[in-house]
Amino acid sequence: MSKSTLVSTTVNGDAVEFACPADESLMTALRDRVGLTGVKEGCGTGDCGACSISLDGRLVCSCIVLGVEAEGRSIETVEGLSQNGVLHPLQQNFIDHAALQCGICTPGFLVAAKALLDRNPNPDESEIRYALAGNLCRCTGYDKIVRAVQATAKDMRKKGRS
Amino acid sequence: MAHDNSYVDKKFNVVGTRFNRPDGIDKVTGKARYGADASAPGQLVGKVLRSPHAHAQILKINTSKAEKLQGVKSIITFEDLPDLTGADQGMADILENCMARGRALYDGHAVAAVAAVDEQTAAKALKLIDVKYKKLPHVTDVDEAMLPTAPIIHDRIFTRGVEPKPTKPSNISSRTEMGNGDIEAGFAEADIIVEHSFKTEQTHQGYIEPHACLASVNPDGTAELWVTTQGHFVFRNVCAGLLGLDIAKLKVTSSEIGGGFGGKTHVWVEPVALALSRKANRPVKMVMSRDEVFRATGPTSSTSIDVKLGAKKNGRITAAIAELRYQGGAFPGNWAMLGCMTAFACYDIKNNKSIGWDVLVNRPKVTAYRAPSAPMAAFAVESAMDILAKELGMKAIDVRLKNVAREGTLAPYGPTYGPIGIEDTLKAVKAHPHMRAKLKPNQGRGVACGFWFNIGGQTSTDLNIGVDGTVNLAVGTVDVGGSRSSLAMIAAEELGIDYEDVKANIADTTSLGHNDMTEGSRGTFSSGMATIYAAREAIEVLKQRAAQTWGIPVEDVAWEAGHAVATGKGHGNLPKLSLREIAAKSGRTGGPIAGHNEVTADGAGMGFASHICDVEVDPETGRSTIVRYTVVQDAGKAINPDYVEGQFQGGATQGIGWALNEEYIYGDDGRLQNPGFLDYRIPVCSDLPFIDTKILEIPNPNHPYGVRGVGETSIVPPLAAVANAIANATGVRMGHAPMSPPRVLAALDALDAG
Fold first, then answer.
1. Is residue B176 part of a domain?
2. Residues 6+ apart with CB under 8 A from B750
3. Which residues contact A92 (CB under 8 A, 6 or more apart)?
4. If you average pLDDT over residues B342-357, what whole number do you get?
5. Rounded to whole angstroms, how far apart are CA atoms A96 and B581?
6. Are B494 and B421 in the same domain?
7. Distance in Å, alpha carbon of A16 to nearest chain B alpha carbon
8. Domain shared by A73 and A10, yes or no
9. 3-state SS, one letter per residue, for B671-730
10. A47 and A17: one domain?
11. Which residues pair with B524 in a beta bridge?
12. Which of B576, B601, B626 is the last residue of a domain?
């Protein structure tokens, strides 16, 4: 067994502590120690985006962040997207637009798309495509994913106005 | 009960509409559990030591230091696995691929495995295993492997399919020949003959979820395996066979599957995990790294193909011949044979011949990849069709229409076609607005066709009706593309109830009869057929219960729109009974109401597609960008059009990746140089436009709803569609895929140099 370090964080709004070895990725710590298996491992090298999370509001691949680096920081994962049993509009639109097939990349896409819409509520198609270029999907050809994000942006702008 | 699989034209209520998938919420909230998302009390972490050499004799494996490391619970090498030498060679090959026996046959071949208390300890233990190798000469190129001077990979392999029987071993495991007519007479008749040679590089299925499993074997021989797979029943049979377990005692549960595309039809770490667990007497979890996925799991073949076409001036092809060389990695396969079968399948060519060579090289064992072997053959043949069209001075689409296969055409691989959709897809392409859209400078448009057989196979399905009238549908094919939604729709259609009242689940191997692998685009076709039959059996039970309730003969009861209706004379005043009402009383009328079906689903409908691709080529960098793409494919019947479109778009995108970027790059040392998503570049969102789709529905006569498979055909046309588009944009004919920027730039420079 390797020596572990205690890490205190906020995860999806809750105070969470975990202990992990110094060389363990935040992705592994979240999956194996915090139990958030919605954080997916596709590559372990920051190339596929399946493990995307928000760390202090910044979109990162949690597989290339160390668990100990999360000390004192705030983490948001796909598990924190829905509030009080209501799906986030992105989640609902992904279902409604058939924007997922196998679904392994879906949590990462949702986290990345939310990061985009948080900073740009009215992205054009090209901005959406570039914002999601760090997330690999092998099933959909991205068509329905882009459409789901477009629909969400439209829904959220409408809601923001009302 | 015998069931009739004939197509019946009818009006559907549920089928053909769009419903949300039942697994959607779990997948958007992170609750869905994939291969790596299970754990068990006391579980260990398993890891594999892999060969760094392309080809090497394993002189000695010393595990003593690793065994002494605290936290290491079991270590296995080939000596801990059964020796299947002399037994079924296919099974022996599978086992040897899972764990090298005496020789490492490719970079990444498993040599030993460790189970330890945690990841770090297992990784440390791997470093303590001392393997003494003697490097052997290697070969990774398909053409080089066929040369008489090439290092021989297996001295037990003598080329099958050649006369006289060879006396020396060879890397050519088999030769296949098929076709119709008189090829020489056909070329003698031709006014114009074109010939071209092609190469395609090796690509990987590239599923985002690496292989992962959790295995637990008890001392009494009972065992459980949680695994990401396209076929848990087949995995059960294979793992039990390899390790000497009883099939009934090995329970295999398929997790959610994070993509497969054929790559999860084969066992890799699963038998290793079971063997480690058996030795340690603890559950063992194994998750492959992406590096391992690329180096050691199922890529598709790299190929080398020659095509020659002869035609009359009017465009009618008189003869076609292809010679196809496919490498299957370090173990024999039948990949070239599949290439032969598909090469000319879109066309009605009186005289045709395909010769296939299946070849061994020092690369990972090739596994199915979406319409396996067809995209490479189509790349060659569909490129050659455009070359022919240019020579003839005809439009490429018109040459295709002139020679298109129809109902009654004798297919090159044997059967005579029933109703097929290739002509309709070509006509739809010709009429599509995409074909008339203006192109900008440096842009070109290409069209190509594709064929895939689709298969049926053994299928078992249970349908159980609860006392509240909701329905559980247990199926044994894995949901790789939304089939739970399609199958629930089919059950709802048959029973006459709402889609929301049916819940489809993938049953584990102890809960349902055998199901073949979910491959060959068979999931919705075959489980759909079994679901229809199971529902019809349940309807018979429902009718009996209604007859019993009413006290009338069952012959006087019909099933209409979710209700039992009395039809005979004198029963006119009986109020109809809903499924829900009958179900509520089932405890008092004879017990649970269910329908079952076990079937070998025959009569899969062939899938045909035609694609249109617009590409823009940057003359300075050679980079090609897809600016517009349209898929037209015959689905037979689209159960849930959302997910049929999804299959079309996903397959086309994989084909585009293969056409433009994806390739295994081997160094002179025989090692894979790009085993990661950074250097093995699959298409990303910003690479692509929207992929337009058009679903045609030419019913399959051998399915009650007319369903054909839809999953695979879409990957077949893109390589040639892109190549033809590049040729039309630049005047350069690319015969080597992927048509990556350096290759296109070199071809442009060569053109300029004249």
1. no
2. none
3. none
4. 98
5. 32
6. no
7. 18
8. yes
9. CECCCCCCCCCCCCHHHCCCEEEEEECCCCCCCCCCCCCCCCHHHCCHHHHHHHHHHHHH
10. yes
11. none
12. B601
Residues A102, B210: C-beta atoms closer than 8 Å: no
Structural domain count, chain B:
3
Q: Please state, as a whole number, how many other Cβ atoms lie within 10 Å of the Cβ of residue B516.
A: 22
Residues 4-43, chain B, touching A (beta carbon < 8 A): 18, 20-21, 23-34, 36-37
Query: Scanning every residue of chain A, which has its alpha carbon at the shortest distance from the alpha carbon of B125?
Result: A1
The answer to whether B521 and B705 are in contact (CB under 8 A) is: no
Yes or no, beta carbons of B646 and A144 under 8 Å apart:
yes
- Percentages of chain B per state (helix, strand, coil), in multiples of 5: 30, 25, 45
Contacts of A5 in chain B (CB under 8 A): none
Predicted pLDDT at A118: 96
Give me the phi and psi of B490, to 5 degrees please.
Answer: -65, -45
Question: In the numeric block, which tokens belong to residue A131?
Answer: 């914002």
Predicted confidence (pLDDT) at residue B717 exceeds the cutoff of 80 = yes
If asked whether residues B467 and B448 sit together in one domain, one would say: no
Q: Which of B687, B684, B691, B679 is nearest to B718 (CA)?
A: B691
Scanning every residue of chain A, which has its alpha carbon at the shortest distance from the alpha carbon of B655? A141
Round the CA-based radius of gyration of chain A to a whole number and report it.
Answer: 16
Comparing alpha-carbon positions, the chain B residue that sits nearest to A43 is B290
Provide the CATH number for the domain around residue B444: 3.30.365.10
Residues B332 and B421 in one domain: yes
Kindly state the average pLDDT of the residues A134-154. Answer: 98
At B1 the pLDDT is 73
How large is the ipTM? 0.98
Which residue, A80, A99, A124, sits at the end of a domain? Answer: A80
My answer on whether B539 and B575 are in the same domain is: yes
Enclosing domain of residue B28: 24-32+456-601
The residue of chain A nearest to residue B294, with distances taken between CA atoms, is A43
Residue B315, Ramachandran bin (φ over 0: left; ψ between -120 and 50: alpha; else beta): left
Say how many CB pairs under 8 Å bridge A and B: 192
What is the domain range of residue A45?
A: 4-80
Average pLDDT on B228-255 reads 98
Tell which B residues from 205 to 234 touch A, by Cβ distance under 8 Å: 205-210
What b/e readout covers B643-679, taking b as 16+ CB neighbours within 10 angstroms?
Answer: bbbbbbbbbbbbbbbbbbbbbbebeeebbbebbbbee
Q: Which of A33, A62, A80 is the last residue of a domain?
A: A80
Q: What's chain B's average pLDDT? A: 97
Q: Would the pLDDT of A162 be above 70?
A: no
Strand extents, DSSP E, B348-387: 351-359
What's B665's DSSP letter? -
Question: In angstroms, rounded to a whole number, what is the distance separating the alpha carbons of residues B426 and B397?
Answer: 7
B661/B700 same-domain check: yes
Does B132 lie at the interface with A, CB-CB under 8 angstroms?
A: no
Query: Is the domain of B369 the same as that of B380?
Result: yes
Q: Which of residues 462-501 of B touch A (CB under 8 A)?
A: 480-482
